[in-house]
């Protein structure tokens, strides 16, 4: 197969930042995806419906002329989130979920949840009103090895949350381990998960073998090869619990190539091309449409897109950088050749 047309996909986990970075990156997502769940971890974080609607307007204003892309907004869950705000999200046309960051788990997560039990009344309200909870599933205790943090979170926190709130809709974001895949597979139908291109493509050698390569550093961190293979099997299985979420995270190059580099991979420039390459390697291109275009929309209770996206099998080189001199971003696989290219949407 050298040409593939699918229903226009959506990205169910995306960072676009604000200001100059937003303007530099939003066109990459808009050329491929009909919609995207927008992460709220700005500085300061997006914690109210009012703030989310203002952020939505900024995103819409930054879109290329004629774009029909729709940002789907989320709120950042904090210790100060009120039960009333949960009801406002349930009543909002444009805000679709809450995002839970354990405090200190990743970029701009300092305002996240430090006491999970204290958030249980909020989970109860989300369950009552049908508001999804999107979880960055890692423990942050210093005594735990960074490669074990997702597994321990599932064992000690996520399993308890699901048991306590059996009707709560939960998305386990950016899975990285075999244990996480097995947990989602065995959980009820209201539990789903997103999978990123970097976790399908790379294991931890990409960060560390032959020198430290900061543009492969993300959180949750890349894991061993058997975990990558488990993720690839899940993504290409046709199981509707697993769907596309790039976790594309633009950071300035100078902040990645740094003595304390930021966590995050920028993949929006070639998201569908990266996924297509991995699905082809797995012999599962026929499963890409469900993963990218159907299962996420179905989980969120939104209509599937009616447009299409076409990819052509042809080699092209990923640019070394995007943005201008004041806001340079190094993309995933910079300077390397990809085998698929989006040709129409």
CATH superfamily: Metal-dependent hydrolases
Strand coverage percent: 15-25%
Give me the count of strands: 11
Cα separation of the termini:
19 Å
Structural class: alpha/beta
Give helix and strand order, one letter per element, not per position: EEHEHEHEHEHEHEHHHEHHHEE
Give me the oligomer status.
single chain
Rounded average pLDDT: 96
Strand order of the largest sheet: 2-3-4-5-6-7-8-9
What's the structural domain tally? Answer: 1
Low-pLDDT stretches: none
CATH top-level class: Alpha Beta
Could you give a short description of this structure?
The chain has 345 residues and is an alpha/beta fold. It contains twelve helices and eleven strands. Helix content is 34%, strand content 17%.
Description:
Helix content is 34%, strand content 17%. The protein is α/β, with parallel strands linked by helices and 345 residues long. The chain has one domain: Alpha-Beta Barrel (TIM Barrel). The strands form 2 sheets. An 8-stranded parallel β-sheet has the order 2-3-4-5-6-7-8-9. The chain has a 3-stranded antiparallel β-sheet with strand order 1-10-11, with helices on one face. Helix 3 packs parallel to helix 4 (120-129). The protein starts with a strand and ends with a strand. The mean pLDDT is 96.
């Amino acid at each position: 197969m050298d040409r593939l047309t699918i229903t226009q996909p959506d990205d169910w986990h995306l960072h676009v930042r604000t200001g100059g970075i937003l303007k530099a990156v939003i066109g990459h997502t808009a050329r491929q995806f009909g919609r995207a769940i927008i992460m709220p971890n700005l500085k300061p974080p997006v914690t109210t419906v009012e703030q989310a609607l203002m952020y939505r307007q900024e995103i819409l204003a930054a879109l290329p002329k004629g774009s029909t892309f729709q940002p789907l907004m989320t709120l950042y869950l904090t210790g100060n989130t009120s039960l009333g705000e949960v009801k406002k999200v349930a009543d909002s046309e444009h805000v679709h979920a809450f995002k839970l960051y354990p405090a200190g788990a990743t970029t701009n997560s300092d305002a996240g949840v430090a006491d999970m039990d204290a958030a249980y009344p909020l989970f109860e309200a989300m369950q009552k009103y049908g508001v999804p909870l999107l979880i960055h599933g890692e423990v942050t205790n210093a005594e735990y090895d960074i490669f074990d943090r997702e597994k321990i979170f599932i064992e000690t926190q996520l399993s308890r949350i699901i048991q306590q709130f059996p009707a709560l809709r939960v998305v386990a974001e950016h899975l990285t381990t075999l244990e996480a895949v097995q947990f989602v597979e065995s959980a009820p139908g209201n539990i789903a998960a997103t999978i990123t291109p970097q976790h399908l493509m790379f294991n931890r050698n990409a960060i560390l073998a032959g020198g430290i390569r900061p543009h492969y550093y993300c959180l949750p961190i890349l894991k061993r090869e058997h975990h990558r293979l488990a993720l690839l099997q899940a993504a290409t299985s046709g199981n509707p619990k697993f769907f596309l979420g790039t976790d594309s995270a633009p950071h300035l190059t100078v902040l990645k190539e740094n003595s304390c580099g930021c966590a995050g991979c920028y993949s929006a420039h070639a998201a569908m091309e990266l996924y297509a390459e991995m699905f082809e390697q797995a012999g599962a291109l026929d499963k890409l449409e469900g993963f990218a275009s159907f299962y996420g929309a179905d989980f969120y209770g939104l209509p599937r897109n009616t447009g299409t996206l076409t990819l052509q099998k042809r080699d092209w080189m990923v640019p070394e950088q995007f943005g201008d001199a004041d806001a340079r971003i190094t993309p995933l696989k910079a300077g390397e050749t990809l085998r698929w290219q989006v040709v129409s949407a």
